[in-house]
Design goal:
single chain, elongated
Length: 202
């Protein structure tokens, strides 16, 4: 008979494997579907978004701008009622270009410093293909916005749970009386990974 410690470990592995999997169904579905789409990008070429102009404005800050381009970008987005996370900023003496993440379509905001003209482009049309891909690449704790912070926490939970699923899967297999088929799968997967890692590392 299994000891009390092993029975408790069995219970923990099965329960954690089950309930973290159930909780993370939406996230794992997003990552699985988007990974498939990215791996077969040519199949979905017709669904790829294109830049479309969605707004024009004029931006003439009434006070000296902060030196950091990221701080300038935050003020620009706020003036356009697009305050939110900033993906990247390209800045020079003539213009400021801000990329703002959005699950329904990335924003590109271009501000001409001398004329004050602002053009807002967005990836259109919104569709399921772009939605899952945009969520796939949404990560990081840098943006000071609650939804982004919560999403970043769930990404950490996904990664930790994935490792837990790996170790709990090995544990559950090791506790089975018949281990041959599982051992062949484990050894085969590790061998294939090693060979591909060496070949792709050249």
């Amino acid at each position: 008979m299994a000891s009390v410690g092993l029975r408790r470990c069995d219970w923990f592995m099965r329960v954690s494997h089950l309930y973290t999997g159930l909780f993370l169904v939406p996230w794992m579905t997003i990552y699985a579907v988007s990974a498939f789409c990215l791996n077969h990008r040519p199949w979905f070429a017709d669904f790829a978004s294109k830049w479309e102009e969605v707004d024009k404005a004029e931006y003439r800050p009434g006070e000296p701008l902060p030196e950091a381009p990221e701080a300038q970008a935050a003020l620009l987005l706020e003036s356009l009622d697009l305050a939110g996370p900033i993906g990247s900023v390209n800045s020079d003496a003539n213009q400021l270009v801000v990329y703002r993440p959005c699950a329904l379509g990335l924003y590109q905001v271009v501000w001409q410093r001398k004329t004050g003209a602002v053009v807002v482009n967005q990836q259109r049309p919104p569709n399921a293909y772009n939605f899952v891909n945009n969520l796939h690449f949404r990560a990081g704790y840098a943006p000071p916005y609650l939804p982004d912070r919560i999403w970043a926490v769930t990404v950490d939970v996904v990664t930790i749970s994935t490792l837990l699923w790996v170790f709990s899967g090995i544990y559950i297999w090791a506790r089975r009386p018949r281990k041959l088929l599982g051992g062949l799968c484990l050894a085969g997967g590790c061998a294939l990974f090693t060979v591909l890692a060496v070949l792709l590392g050249r």
